[in-house]
Design goal:
mainly alpha, 3 helices, 0% strand
Length: 85
């Protein structure tokens, strides 16, 4: 993925943190922090062809993915509920 695409993804994550009172809530900051960590690891993983993966780092990212799953589910449900009202 090139730098332009990575910047777009990063800026989209940052925009999702915006909260517009009375309109809708987006991602909570806690969720975005986890997603940023995973995005960083994904970038490294995709571009580090000749680097051996660190087993502990992979496990930490697995734990991050497991931790963010319920947070992301919560944030998406909260977002979608606003359209049902």
């Amino acid at each position: 993925m090139d730098k332009v695409k990575l910047e777009i993804i990063r800026s989209q994550l940052e925009r999702q943190l915006l909260w517009i009172e009375g309109i809708y809530d987006n991602l909570r900051e806690e969720t975005a922090v986890y997603l940023h960590k995973l995005r960083s690891f994904r970038h490294f993983f995709r571009h580090a062809y000749t680097v051996a993966l660190d087993h502990d780092e992979v496990l930490r990212n697995l734990q991050t993915a497991e931790a963010v799953r319920p947070l992301l589910r919560r944030d998406v449900q909260t977002f979608l509920q606003q359209f049902e009202e």
